[in-house]
């Protein structure tokens, strides 16, 4: 009834292939060593951070409870252990566990994922009375696996002893899988214990593929009374239960964590996106901060320097307010998926929105903290990055120091969105706004800003999540993410919002009206948008609308465009499919690349190839002949 | 013997087409009006400039003589007239007269251009005794044209009276041609008089095509005694006679003004280009400044604020020194010419070089002048550009204020190149270095820096010379250059230096070693270079060498790369032509566009499509079988 190691390997391989993991695979030793280094250094941060915060008692309390909360689900641990684990949790949160939602969602919407037990029953041909690596056991569960105690499982935390985890009452050997886990070594947080609390948080695991992989790794079953004890001790309350209510206006790409696009066809109507329509991109449950108690800590590496309330931000620093377009690096990922499968949410061209963000300039706050533009400290201390930590641990991100300090960088410590306090959904009470960069750097619910020699530590900064990988890198197996460059400014991009794909155009109109957005990173103004209705054979210029008037090299918001294009006479027949496309050029004279193949990358980010929309010509009947 | 207007028109049309002018054509009224506006405002500048400089006597003298020198060739004018004309000369120097050297040189190298008289003899079938628009004349020259006096010619300065010019003893009606002149209305400087002094300066006119056009416009001949008087009064001394001696190391694209590439195959050997090998791009004769007398004037619009000597620059401001790659916007123009004819010098990929430039920061000088980063003056006065004027009038260029003032912009007022005073050839004693921008903004022999609301006034800033035009703009006819964006930062680019096109590779080697450069504008680091030996079917990453270590967003110098690429087995046959190509990605994740068609523009600038080099596989015989 128990599989041989070889047979387990085969089953795992095929499950992985089905799940599209063959190409994502394992992290290198480089990363693992790095994880260990970080584990040490982060524990250090926690320690000295606590020291540094001693004079700011509140802030220590502020960090404390969150650490508890994050690991509360594990239950029954002494507070000392919790503190140590909190450090470890942060330290190990390197990979991209939360980044594999894509296929997830396709699977979860509609069909509930199967129970791994059923899969085991279906997939496994009972073998002879073989021994799992766990030991030689007479007593076997109804599925044919040997029984384990929680204590036995807890002894298997390291590769040298094999690594076991439990899910419900199943015991799984994940030793080989660790290197193939898209979320990297974060899986080790559960080594020797239950993964259930983590999966309640990262619901992207609830897919058939993941369950198949899990089933292939099964080696045992918890004693029934032990499982009942465990079940009682684990709180599996839905961590997303407290998310804000939503109208679901745009296409929802994932419910938990919540990710939805803006309404693409309505983009041209709203230069400033109404808040309910602004796209949403969460990696975790939406945290809830009490604005009155909220403190933003300013730090230099692990030494805390200052903490400010939102009231301080409002009263002590000059307020700045301007429109900024935020765009997910994965926007337009759908099109890359058509070239070859990529990881991540299947965004159309609506993971982009514009709001008027208000707040104080990060450079003013840094200046006040002693890290101003002219501060020799920056150079002497080798500060190269400003890191932002959100309340949704372990999320963090960082930006280069020059962007943070430049008078022309316009990075905001924002507390207003479209003239009102920032809603929780969008990062209130305090969100960083880094204009011109991928939105992942505009850290929501920001509670800590650190001047640092290195980049932020999370997988969203240092992992593969937002790295520039080449088209020929078809697997991350053996790739050290540190050798890839972190995405900051995004390239020039544009998309057609109207007409929408699949719509029809009256052939007798003789022309098509196109509308869309164009935007480039780094504040680079859009100088031109070209459009074509014959797949790029002939082009004409679009009229640039709002956004074209933005200050030079400070075009933080998109530029709207519109064009009336004549349908070439030879195409004017009902049934003909028009291949409409657009391409933009920015002030640095960078062009969009022609084909998605050239920019394809395994993470499916930064697709800025020409945007195509197919529409069909029809002859519309007159509804009212008298009219 | 004299052509009818219709026949002249036909001859002109065909000559223009041969010269590739059919697509370049005439400037719009917008430009012409603009020229007039500028004429007024520039005269104003001269006037108030002189006032402003009154307290800096030397500087007034400094500007005075140059104005004289520039128009000295006209001879016999009172000094008041000269002053007025100097303003006009600057004002009208809008177009791109010096920018049509390309085919020019191809023609001049080897074959001396023909005399227009010969062309007239050859091309024209003598007609009946027709009349030129010049009048009804009995007496005709041996070529069959009526004779004119200089006084008669001088009455034809405006379109309403027809516009005549003389060249040698020929009289030409250029009324219709003015709008087609690639140099724009600058041709009107010679209206009613001789163009000979101008052509001595702009020797790009010495081509068969230009002579053909000229021949087609001929309407008469100067009386012999009048021509002799004129000849005696015109100084046609070679204005380039005083150019520095040169080694002609790289491909010379034009002798007068001098334009030459660096030695492409030697690029990979020299991260810092040795000065004799640095590419040279001149628009005029190389001016000679006496360093001891040299003064750099700092101004706000037309009010002079400060003048400094090179000694002041050295002693009063902190010295900064770093490698900067300068690249002509027209680099790699050759490839665009293969798509469709473009204007400009036919650069291969060697109009790029790197030197260590030393000097003080422009921002420090501006700060000292009262236009610092924090100066409210900048905002209050609406300053948006910093303009640089060179000694080679009427050359000027400008950059956006944020580039000039940013701590991270690193714009230099340079006085050293590779550790020594800047040679005259490269802009000494004082040259502006604008890292990350097209080299045309790094104004040589800079004598005036102006904080201004508008861009620089010359054709190289406001004209079509360095504007971002779309691929579908096949003529500048009817295009107002002010509607096109001035190029500043250049897009990501790369090229293969080795092997060189047309070289051979030993098929038995099984692989090819590629070397080249990559660079992007705006200090954007090169994060990757991909190479292919099968025309882009398969790619691999190149190793990044020197330059990859540059500071984040301050990669002002190129990045060298190298790759050893296996030749695909199916191509390993003698006689096979390998299509080797490369493409780079910068830190803002901008990619090079795949095909030159997508970036083609009439001016032939900013070609950053994939760079291709064709080499042939051969089986090399063993030279020495014992070896």
From TrEMBL, chains A, B:
Top-level enzyme category: oxidoreductase
Gene3D superfamilies recorded: 2.60.40.650, Cytochrome b5-like heme/steroid binding domain (3.10.120.10), Oxidoreductase, molybdopterin-binding domain (3.90.420.10)
Compartmental location: Mitochondrion intermembrane space
Region annotated Disordered, chain positions: 107-135
Pathway(s) where this gene product acts: Energy metabolism; sulfur metabolism
Annotated Gene Ontology cellular component terms: mitochondrial intermembrane space
Name the UniProt record assigns to this protein: sulfite oxidase
């Amino acid at each position: 009834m128990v599989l041989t190691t070889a047979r387990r390997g085969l089953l795992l391989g095929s499950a992985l292939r089905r799940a599209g993991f063959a190409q994502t695979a394992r992290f290198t030793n480089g990363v693992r060593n790095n994880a260990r280094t970080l584990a040490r250094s982060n524990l250090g941060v926690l320690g000295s951070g606590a020291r540094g915060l001693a004079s700011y008692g509140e802030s220590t309390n502020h960090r404390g409870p969150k650490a508890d909360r994050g690991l509360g689900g594990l239950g029954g641990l002494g507070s000392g252990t919790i503190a140590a684990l909190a450090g470890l949790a942060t330290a190990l949160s390197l990979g991209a566990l939360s980044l594999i939602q894509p296929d997830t969602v396709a699977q979860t919407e509609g069909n509930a994922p199967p129970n791994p037990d059923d899969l085991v029953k279906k997939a496994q041909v009972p073998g002879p009375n073989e021994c799992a690596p766990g030991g030689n056991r007479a007593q076997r569960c109804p599925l044919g696996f040997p029984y384990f105690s929680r204590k036995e499982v807890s002894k298997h935390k390291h590769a040298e002893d094999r690594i076991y985890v439990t899910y419900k009452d199943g015991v799984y050997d994940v030793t080989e899988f660790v290197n193939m886990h898209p979320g990297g070594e974060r899986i080790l947080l559960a080594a020797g214990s239950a993964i259930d609390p983590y999966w309640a948080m990262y619901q992207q695991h609830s897919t058939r593929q993941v369950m198949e992989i899990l089933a292939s790794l099964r080696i045992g079953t918890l004693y029934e009374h032990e499982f009942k004890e465990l079940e009682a001790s684990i709180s599996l309350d839905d961590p997303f239960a407290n998310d804000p209510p939503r109208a679901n206006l745009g296409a929802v790409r994932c419910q938990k964590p919540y990710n939805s696009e803006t309404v693409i066809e309505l983009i041209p109507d709203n230069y400033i996106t109404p808040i309910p329509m602004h796209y949403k991109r969460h990696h975790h449950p939406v945290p809830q901060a009490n604005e009155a108690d909220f403190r933003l800590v300013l730090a230099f590496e692990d030494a805390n320097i200052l903490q400010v309330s939102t009231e301080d931000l409002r009263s002590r620093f000059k307020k700045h307010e301007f429109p900024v377009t935020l765009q997910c690096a994965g926007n337009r990922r759908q099109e890359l998926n058509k070239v070859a499968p990529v990881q991540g949410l299947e965004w159309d061209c609506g993971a982009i929105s514009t709001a008027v963000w208000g707040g104080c300039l990060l450079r003013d706050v840094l200046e006040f903290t002693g890290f101003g533009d002219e501060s020799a400290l920056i150079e002497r201390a080798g500060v190269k990055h400003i890191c932002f930590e959100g309340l949704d641990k372990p999320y963090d991100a960082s930006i280069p120091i020059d962007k943070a300090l430049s008078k022309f960088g316009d990075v905001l410590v924002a507390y207003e969105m479209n003239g009102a306090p920032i809603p929780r959904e969008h990062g209130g009470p305090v969100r960083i706004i880094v204009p011109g960069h991928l939105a992942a750097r505009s850290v929501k619910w920001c509670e800590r800003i650190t001047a640092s020699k290195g980049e932020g530590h999370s997988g969203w900064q240092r992992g593969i999540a937002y790295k520039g990988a080449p088209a020929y890198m078809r697997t991350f197996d053996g790739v050290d993410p540190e050798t890839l460059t972190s995405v900051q400014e995004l390239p020039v991009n544009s998309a057609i919002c109207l007409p929408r794909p699949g719509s029809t155009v009256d052939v007798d109109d003789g022309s098509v009206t196109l509308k869309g957005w164009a935007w480039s990173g780094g504040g680079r103004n859009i100088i031109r948008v070209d459009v074509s209705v014959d797949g790029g054979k002939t082009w004409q210029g679009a009229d640039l609308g709002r956004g074209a008037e933005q200050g030079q090299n400070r075009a933080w918001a998109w530029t709207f465009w519109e064009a009336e294009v004549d349908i070439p006479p030879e195409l004017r027949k009902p049934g003909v499919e028009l291949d409409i496309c657009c391409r933009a050029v920015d002030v640095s004279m960078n062009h969009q690349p022609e084909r998605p193949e050239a920019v394809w990358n395994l993470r499916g980010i930064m697709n800025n190839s020409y945007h195509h929309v197919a529409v069909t010509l029809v002859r519309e009947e007159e509804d009212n002949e008298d009219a």
